[in-house]
Amino acid sequence: GAGRRRGKMAAGGAADAQARFGHSVKGLLTEKVTSCGTDVIALTKQVLKGSRSAELLGQAARNMVMQEDAILHSEDSLRKMAIITTHLQYQ
Q1: How far is CA 31 from CA 27, 40, 41, 54, in A?
Q2: pLDDT-based confidence at 13, cuts 50/70/90?
Q3: Model-wide pTM > 0.90
Q4: Which residue has the higher pLDDT, 16 or 81?
Q5: Residue 83: which H helix or E strand, with range?
Q6: What distance in Å separates the CA atoms of residue 45 and residue 27, rounded to the nearest whole number?
Q7: How many structural domains is the chain composed of?
Q8: Residue 91: which H helix or E strand, with range?
Q9: Are both 42 and 58 inside the same structural domain?
């Protein structure tokens, strides 16, 4: 009788150890999934930030082109005014 009881207790102990191991694996898996989710969120934020940066750079380039056109137009106007001033001085 005593041998049988010890066999059942050993089997019960093994089942208990297996349950603890399963619980531990579930805990590790949950931890890894959470960590992976956090990494995906960080990556997504970085990609969005990068695309926003590219958008801002494009806008800055367009603004520079517009400024350059305005400067060239102003330069042209100044040259014309200088010619008119010269003609007025001769008269």
Answers
A1: 6, 14, 15, 35
A2: confident
A3: no
A4: 81
A5: helix 2-90
A6: 27
A7: 2
A8: none
A9: no
